[in-house]
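Dock adenosine-5'-diphosphate; give full complex structure.
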Amino acid sequence: MRDQAENLRQMILKSREQASHLKDFYKSPIIKQHRSSKAQVFAVTSGKGGVGKTNFTVNLALALTNLGKRVLVIDADLGMANVDVLFGCETKYSLLHLLQEEIKLEDILTEGPRGIKYMSGGSGIYDLANLDEVKLQGIINKITLCDKLADVILVDTGAGINRNVLNFVLAADEVILVTTPEPTAMTDAYAMMKAYVSHHGTAPLKLVINRVMEAGEGQTVVNKLSQTALRFLQLRVDSLGFVYEDMNLVKAVKRQQPLLLAYPNTISAQCIEKIANQLLNRQFVAKNSGIEGFLSRFLNFI
Ligand SMILES: Nc1ncnc2c1ncn2[C@@H]1O[C@H](COP(=O)(O)OP(=O)(O)O)[C@@H](O)[C@H]1O
Ligand SMILES: [Mg+2]
Protein backbone atom coordinates (compact mmCIF):
# COMPACT_ATOMS: atom_id res chain seq x y z
CA MET A 1 0.00 0.00 0.00
CA ARG A 2 1.30 3.44 -0.93
CA ASP A 3 2.07 5.57 2.11
CA GLN A 4 -1.40 6.88 2.82
CA ALA A 5 -0.26 8.96 5.76
CA GLU A 6 2.17 10.89 3.58
CA ASN A 7 -0.54 11.33 0.96
CA LEU A 8 -2.80 12.78 3.56
CA ARG A 9 -0.21 15.15 4.94
CA GLN A 10 0.40 16.44 1.44
CA MET A 11 -3.32 16.93 0.91
CA ILE A 12 -3.72 18.86 4.12
CA LEU A 13 -0.77 21.06 3.23
CA LYS A 14 -2.30 21.68 -0.18
CA SER A 15 -5.64 22.54 1.42
CA ARG A 16 -4.05 25.43 3.29
CA GLU A 17 -2.82 26.88 0.04
CA GLN A 18 -6.01 26.24 -1.86
CA ALA A 19 -8.39 27.92 0.56
CA SER A 20 -8.36 31.11 -1.49
CA HIS A 21 -11.89 30.51 -2.82
CA LEU A 22 -13.08 30.93 0.75
CA LYS A 23 -11.67 34.45 1.02
CA ASP A 24 -14.99 36.10 1.95
CA PHE A 25 -15.54 33.65 4.73
CA TYR A 26 -12.08 34.35 6.10
CA LYS A 27 -12.83 38.08 6.11
CA SER A 28 -15.59 37.84 8.72
CA PRO A 29 -14.45 39.58 11.91
CA ILE A 30 -14.81 36.57 14.20
CA ILE A 31 -12.46 34.55 12.00
CA LYS A 32 -9.91 37.34 11.65
CA GLN A 33 -9.54 37.54 15.42
CA HIS A 34 -8.40 33.98 15.86
CA ARG A 35 -6.70 33.23 12.60
CA SER A 36 -3.52 31.74 13.95
CA SER A 37 -4.86 29.47 16.68
CA LYS A 38 -5.93 25.88 16.38
CA ALA A 39 -8.77 24.28 18.25
CA GLN A 40 -8.14 21.79 21.00
CA VAL A 41 -9.94 18.52 20.30
CA PHE A 42 -11.38 16.46 23.14
CA ALA A 43 -12.98 13.06 22.58
CA VAL A 44 -15.66 12.24 25.16
CA THR A 45 -15.98 8.49 25.41
CA SER A 46 -16.89 5.57 27.67
CA GLY A 47 -16.62 1.81 27.90
CA LYS A 48 -20.27 1.22 28.76
CA GLY A 49 -23.16 2.96 27.02
CA GLY A 50 -25.66 5.18 28.78
CA VAL A 51 -23.23 6.55 31.38
CA GLY A 52 -23.97 10.17 30.49
CA LYS A 53 -21.47 11.09 27.73
CA THR A 54 -23.83 13.11 25.62
CA ASN A 55 -25.28 15.04 28.53
CA PHE A 56 -21.80 15.72 29.84
CA THR A 57 -20.64 16.87 26.40
CA VAL A 58 -23.44 19.36 25.78
CA ASN A 59 -23.25 20.76 29.30
CA LEU A 60 -19.47 21.04 29.18
CA ALA A 61 -19.91 22.86 25.87
CA LEU A 62 -22.21 25.34 27.62
CA ALA A 63 -19.89 25.74 30.59
CA LEU A 64 -16.93 26.44 28.31
CA THR A 65 -19.05 28.90 26.32
CA ASN A 66 -19.92 30.71 29.54
CA LEU A 67 -16.19 31.03 30.13
CA GLY A 68 -15.76 32.77 26.79
CA LYS A 69 -14.64 29.85 24.60
CA ARG A 70 -16.03 29.20 21.16
CA VAL A 71 -17.14 25.57 21.12
CA LEU A 72 -17.95 23.14 18.33
CA VAL A 73 -19.60 19.83 19.20
CA ILE A 74 -19.21 16.97 16.74
CA ASP A 75 -21.62 14.11 17.17
CA ALA A 76 -19.58 11.04 16.35
CA ASP A 77 -21.83 8.47 17.97
CA LEU A 78 -22.60 6.79 14.70
CA GLY A 79 -25.21 4.46 16.13
CA MET A 80 -27.09 6.71 18.50
CA ALA A 81 -26.37 10.30 17.60
CA ASN A 82 -28.42 12.52 19.88
CA VAL A 83 -26.56 15.73 20.60
CA ASP A 84 -29.16 17.53 18.48
CA VAL A 85 -31.98 16.10 20.60
CA LEU A 86 -30.44 17.60 23.74
CA PHE A 87 -29.72 20.90 22.03
CA GLY A 88 -33.30 20.89 20.79
CA CYS A 89 -32.16 21.66 17.25
CA GLU A 90 -32.46 19.87 13.95
CA THR A 91 -29.70 19.16 11.49
CA LYS A 92 -30.16 18.75 7.80
CA TYR A 93 -26.64 17.86 6.80
CA SER A 94 -23.70 15.83 7.99
CA LEU A 95 -20.00 15.86 7.18
CA LEU A 96 -20.28 13.96 3.91
CA HIS A 97 -22.62 16.58 2.44
CA LEU A 98 -19.49 18.71 2.07
CA LEU A 99 -18.82 16.54 -0.95
CA GLN A 100 -21.40 18.60 -2.80
CA GLU A 101 -19.65 21.58 -4.25
CA GLU A 102 -22.38 24.07 -3.35
CA ILE A 103 -22.47 23.00 0.32
CA LYS A 104 -20.19 25.09 2.50
CA LEU A 105 -18.96 24.46 6.03
CA GLU A 106 -21.51 26.92 7.43
CA ASP A 107 -24.29 24.88 5.85
CA ILE A 108 -23.46 21.74 7.82
CA LEU A 109 -22.98 23.61 11.10
CA THR A 110 -26.11 24.06 13.18
CA GLU A 111 -26.28 26.75 15.79
CA GLY A 112 -27.17 25.40 19.22
CA PRO A 113 -27.84 27.42 22.39
CA ARG A 114 -25.53 30.39 23.20
CA GLY A 115 -23.94 30.17 19.76
CA ILE A 116 -22.46 26.70 20.21
CA LYS A 117 -21.82 25.11 16.83
CA TYR A 118 -22.92 21.57 16.23
CA MET A 119 -21.98 19.16 13.43
CA SER A 120 -23.22 15.66 12.80
CA GLY A 121 -20.42 13.26 11.90
CA GLY A 122 -23.02 10.93 10.43
CA SER A 123 -22.44 7.28 9.72
CA GLY A 124 -20.97 8.28 6.36
CA ILE A 125 -17.78 9.46 8.05
CA TYR A 126 -16.17 6.10 7.38
CA ASP A 127 -16.87 6.54 3.69
CA LEU A 128 -14.18 9.24 3.74
CA ALA A 129 -11.68 6.40 3.50
CA ASN A 130 -13.09 5.38 0.12
CA LEU A 131 -13.10 8.80 -1.52
CA ASP A 132 -10.73 9.61 -4.32
CA GLU A 133 -8.07 12.22 -3.61
CA VAL A 134 -9.83 15.12 -5.30
CA LYS A 135 -13.02 14.59 -3.34
CA LEU A 136 -11.20 14.08 -0.06
CA GLN A 137 -9.19 17.22 -0.73
CA GLY A 138 -12.43 19.13 -1.30
CA ILE A 139 -13.79 18.06 2.07
CA ILE A 140 -10.53 18.78 3.87
CA ASN A 141 -10.38 22.27 2.36
CA LYS A 142 -13.77 23.07 3.82
CA ILE A 143 -13.50 21.30 7.16
CA THR A 144 -10.19 22.85 8.21
CA LEU A 145 -12.06 26.14 8.60
CA CYS A 146 -13.40 24.72 11.87
CA ASP A 147 -10.09 25.71 13.41
CA LYS A 148 -10.95 29.34 12.74
CA LEU A 149 -14.40 29.02 14.24
CA ALA A 150 -13.75 27.18 17.48
CA ASP A 151 -11.29 27.16 20.36
CA VAL A 152 -12.51 23.83 21.65
CA ILE A 153 -13.95 20.90 19.72
CA LEU A 154 -15.82 18.27 21.71
CA VAL A 155 -16.30 14.95 19.93
CA ASP A 156 -19.11 12.89 21.46
CA THR A 157 -18.25 9.29 20.56
CA GLY A 158 -20.21 6.08 20.92
CA ALA A 159 -19.49 3.62 23.72
CA GLY A 160 -17.43 0.45 23.63
CA ILE A 161 -14.04 -0.68 22.55
CA ASN A 162 -14.72 -1.27 18.87
CA ARG A 163 -12.57 0.34 16.18
CA ASN A 164 -15.34 2.78 15.23
CA VAL A 165 -15.07 4.42 18.62
CA LEU A 166 -11.34 3.94 19.14
CA ASN A 167 -10.41 5.76 15.95
CA PHE A 168 -12.01 8.96 17.22
CA VAL A 169 -10.44 8.48 20.62
CA LEU A 170 -6.96 7.86 19.22
CA ALA A 171 -7.20 10.91 16.96
CA ALA A 172 -8.06 13.44 19.71
CA ASP A 173 -5.67 15.80 21.52
CA GLU A 174 -7.13 14.67 24.85
CA VAL A 175 -9.57 12.00 25.92
CA ILE A 176 -12.30 12.35 28.55
CA LEU A 177 -13.41 8.93 29.74
CA VAL A 178 -16.81 9.01 31.45
CA THR A 179 -17.90 6.31 33.87
CA THR A 180 -20.40 5.88 36.68
CA PRO A 181 -19.55 4.19 40.00
CA GLU A 182 -21.34 0.99 38.92
CA PRO A 183 -18.95 -1.97 38.77
CA THR A 184 -20.11 -2.79 35.22
CA ALA A 185 -19.32 0.74 33.99
CA MET A 186 -15.97 0.71 35.79
CA THR A 187 -15.01 -2.67 34.30
CA ASP A 188 -15.87 -1.38 30.84
CA ALA A 189 -13.95 1.86 31.47
CA TYR A 190 -10.91 -0.24 32.33
CA ALA A 191 -11.43 -2.30 29.16
CA MET A 192 -11.44 0.96 27.20
CA MET A 193 -8.15 2.05 28.80
CA LYS A 194 -6.65 -1.33 27.98
CA ALA A 195 -7.73 -1.06 24.34
CA TYR A 196 -6.38 2.51 24.25
CA VAL A 197 -2.97 1.36 25.45
CA SER A 198 -2.87 -1.64 23.14
CA HIS A 199 -3.56 0.69 20.18
CA HIS A 200 -0.71 2.94 21.35
CA GLY A 201 -2.91 5.85 22.43
CA THR A 202 -0.69 8.70 23.54
CA ALA A 203 -3.05 11.60 24.30
CA PRO A 204 -3.70 12.33 27.98
CA LEU A 205 -6.67 10.41 29.31
CA LYS A 206 -8.86 11.99 31.98
CA LEU A 207 -11.66 10.51 34.06
CA VAL A 208 -15.05 12.02 34.80
CA ILE A 209 -17.18 10.09 37.29
CA ASN A 210 -20.85 10.73 36.62
CA ARG A 211 -23.88 10.01 38.81
CA VAL A 212 -22.07 9.91 42.14
CA MET A 213 -24.11 10.04 45.35
CA GLU A 214 -21.40 11.86 47.30
CA ALA A 215 -17.90 13.21 46.65
CA GLY A 216 -16.22 10.33 48.50
CA GLU A 217 -17.78 7.86 46.10
CA GLY A 218 -16.25 9.71 43.14
CA GLN A 219 -12.84 9.69 44.77
CA THR A 220 -13.04 5.95 45.47
CA VAL A 221 -13.79 5.24 41.80
CA VAL A 222 -10.92 7.49 40.69
CA ASN A 223 -8.49 5.79 43.08
CA LYS A 224 -9.48 2.29 41.98
CA LEU A 225 -9.32 3.02 38.27
CA SER A 226 -6.16 5.11 38.29
CA GLN A 227 -4.27 2.67 40.51
CA THR A 228 -5.31 -0.33 38.41
CA ALA A 229 -4.38 1.48 35.19
CA LEU A 230 -0.97 2.43 36.53
CA ARG A 231 -0.24 -1.01 37.91
CA PHE A 232 -1.40 -3.18 35.01
CA LEU A 233 -1.22 -0.87 32.01
CA GLN A 234 1.48 1.60 33.09
CA LEU A 235 -1.07 4.22 32.11
CA ARG A 236 -1.45 7.44 34.06
CA VAL A 237 -5.02 8.66 34.30
CA ASP A 238 -5.98 11.77 36.22
CA SER A 239 -9.42 12.82 37.31
CA LEU A 240 -11.16 15.90 35.97
CA GLY A 241 -13.88 15.64 38.59
CA PHE A 242 -17.28 14.14 39.23
CA VAL A 243 -20.93 14.97 38.63
CA TYR A 244 -23.70 14.17 41.10
CA GLU A 245 -26.67 11.96 40.38
CA ASP A 246 -29.37 14.56 39.76
CA MET A 247 -33.08 14.18 39.00
CA ASN A 248 -32.97 17.68 37.50
CA LEU A 249 -30.81 16.32 34.71
CA VAL A 250 -33.45 13.70 33.93
CA LYS A 251 -36.12 16.41 33.96
CA ALA A 252 -33.99 18.59 31.69
CA VAL A 253 -33.54 15.72 29.21
CA LYS A 254 -37.31 15.29 29.08
CA ARG A 255 -37.62 18.99 28.27
CA GLN A 256 -34.93 18.51 25.60
CA GLN A 257 -32.76 21.08 27.30
CA PRO A 258 -29.23 20.84 28.62
CA LEU A 259 -29.05 20.92 32.44
CA LEU A 260 -26.99 24.12 32.41
CA LEU A 261 -29.83 25.94 30.69
CA ALA A 262 -32.79 24.32 32.45
CA TYR A 263 -31.37 24.20 36.00
CA PRO A 264 -28.14 26.22 36.02
CA ASN A 265 -28.04 26.55 39.80
CA THR A 266 -28.10 22.89 40.75
CA ILE A 267 -25.06 21.37 42.37
CA SER A 268 -24.47 18.98 39.45
CA ALA A 269 -24.41 21.93 37.03
CA GLN A 270 -21.78 23.51 39.27
CA CYS A 271 -19.77 20.26 39.12
CA ILE A 272 -19.63 20.58 35.33
CA GLU A 273 -18.67 24.26 35.56
CA LYS A 274 -15.86 23.30 37.89
CA ILE A 275 -14.61 20.74 35.37
CA ALA A 276 -14.73 23.37 32.60
CA ASN A 277 -12.76 25.77 34.78
CA GLN A 278 -10.21 23.12 35.51
CA LEU A 279 -9.81 22.29 31.82
CA LEU A 280 -8.99 25.91 31.03
CA ASN A 281 -6.76 26.63 33.98
CA ARG A 282 -4.28 23.80 33.84
CA GLN A 283 -0.56 24.15 33.85
CA PHE A 284 0.08 21.39 31.36
CA VAL A 285 -2.21 21.04 28.39
CA ALA A 286 -1.90 18.73 25.43
CA LYS A 287 -0.87 20.26 22.15
CA ASN A 288 -3.77 21.65 20.12
CA SER A 289 -3.62 20.01 16.74
CA GLY A 290 -6.99 21.29 15.61
CA ILE A 291 -9.47 19.67 13.28
CA GLU A 292 -6.66 19.26 10.75
CA GLY A 293 -4.60 17.09 13.07
CA PHE A 294 -7.67 15.23 14.26
CA LEU A 295 -8.90 14.45 10.79
CA SER A 296 -5.55 13.39 9.43
CA ARG A 297 -4.97 11.04 12.36
CA PHE A 298 -8.50 9.68 12.06
CA LEU A 299 -8.05 9.00 8.36
CA ASN A 300 -4.72 7.36 9.03
CA PHE A 301 -6.36 4.88 11.36
CA ILE A 302 -9.20 3.82 9.09
N1 LIG B 1 -25.78 13.06 36.46
C1 LIG B 1 -26.90 12.36 36.15
N2 LIG B 1 -27.92 12.24 37.04
C2 LIG B 1 -29.03 11.54 36.76
N3 LIG B 1 -29.24 10.92 35.59
C3 LIG B 1 -28.29 10.98 34.66
C4 LIG B 1 -27.05 11.70 34.87
N4 LIG B 1 -26.30 11.60 33.75
C5 LIG B 1 -27.01 10.85 32.89
N5 LIG B 1 -28.19 10.47 33.41
C6 LIG B 1 -29.24 9.64 32.79
O1 LIG B 1 -28.64 8.78 31.86
C7 LIG B 1 -29.28 8.92 30.59
C8 LIG B 1 -28.29 8.66 29.48
O2 LIG B 1 -27.40 9.75 29.34
P1 LIG B 1 -26.60 10.04 27.98
O3 LIG B 1 -25.89 11.32 28.17
O4 LIG B 1 -27.52 9.95 26.82
O5 LIG B 1 -25.59 8.80 27.98
P2 LIG B 1 -24.61 8.29 26.82
O6 LIG B 1 -24.39 9.41 25.86
O7 LIG B 1 -23.37 7.87 27.54
O8 LIG B 1 -25.29 7.13 26.17
C9 LIG B 1 -29.85 10.33 30.61
O9 LIG B 1 -30.93 10.44 29.73
C10 LIG B 1 -30.29 10.47 32.05
O10 LIG B 1 -31.55 9.87 32.24
MG1 LIG C 1 -24.68 9.48 23.77
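Observed: The longest helix spans residues 215-233.
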